[in-house]
Amino acid sequence: MRISTQMMYEQNMRGVTNAQSKWLAYGEQMSTGQRVNRPSDDPIAASQAVVISQAQAQNSQYATARTFATQKVSLEESVLSQVTTAITGAQSVIVEAGSGSLSDDDRASIATKLQGYRDQLLNLANSTDGNGRYIFGGYKTESQPYDSTGTYSGGSQEITQQVDASRSMVIAHTGDQVFNSITSNATKEPIDPATGLPGTQETDVFKMLDSAIAALNTPVAGDETAKDAAQAIVDKTSRGLGNSLNNVLSVRSELGTQLDELDTLDSLGDDRSLALTQQKSDLIDVDWNSVISSYTMQQAALQASYKAFTDMQGLSLFQMNS
């Protein structure tokens, strides 16, 4: 077999080119800190890294969702804390109204106090967040849920938020659930002698207060029948406010549990983020000891290839015959 000058030239050029390509590849790994810079570097690792990147993006989205949920739940709990104070204040006024020695003027004065708590509760029921959206309107956040009469016109469904892959939670209750409901273990109304059944139970806190205010503003001096009827309304309102308070406390308990759960999910999300980052690093990041060693060795090999190429040029038949 004849070995031509052209063949030797091409072989040496290939050796130099290959050595230079490997040296540049190690240099790129050192500059980027990644062993896999394109799918062709390691197709399997590259495809697995894509899957991990998608998991990281999803985990980040859930972290953002939890931040939003925490803000919403914390805001509702703060408002309900004020609602609790207002209902407790109204209860104390109702106890005062139960005294049988009150004059009509005293009763009217108590009605005024009760009206103040009623207006305070209505204002709280129409609370908004920092963006002007109504907290207790369900998904109808753009319109005021309660009118001046205390009639609810908000949404019928509470707002939920997906806060993790398998967890969705309520982050905003409707006004109906807070102000127009009572718990299953609420105090029952006394038995009605005429029917033998418990009396009709009021669940709307605004109707409770309105009925008591109207009864207290009605003069009863000298009319025992009217006084007894008014007292019955006051007593019913007292029971109703107790039931409403228990309902609000129940919602607050749920919110507190959710805040604790969000903290736990945040902690788990942080751990998941660290694990995913480590998995991705194991797949595509460089082993610095290995790549520096390989870079140095390849640099020496490249220099040797340059020298061999230069020396081989001196073996040209043209130069040997000159």
From TrEMBL:
Pfam families: Flagellin_N. InterPro entries: Flagell_FlgL, Flagellin, Flagellin_N. Keywords: Bacterial flagellum, Cell projection, Cilium, Flagellum, Secreted. Residues 3-141 form the Flagellin N-terminal domain. Gene3D superfamilies: f41 fragment of flagellin, N-terminal domain (1.20.1330.10). It is found in: Bacterial flagellum; Secreted. Its main location: other. Belongs to the bacterial flagellin family. This is Flagellar hook-associated protein FlgL. The lineage of its organism: Bacteria, Pseudomonadati, Pseudomonadota, Gammaproteobacteria, Enterobacterales.
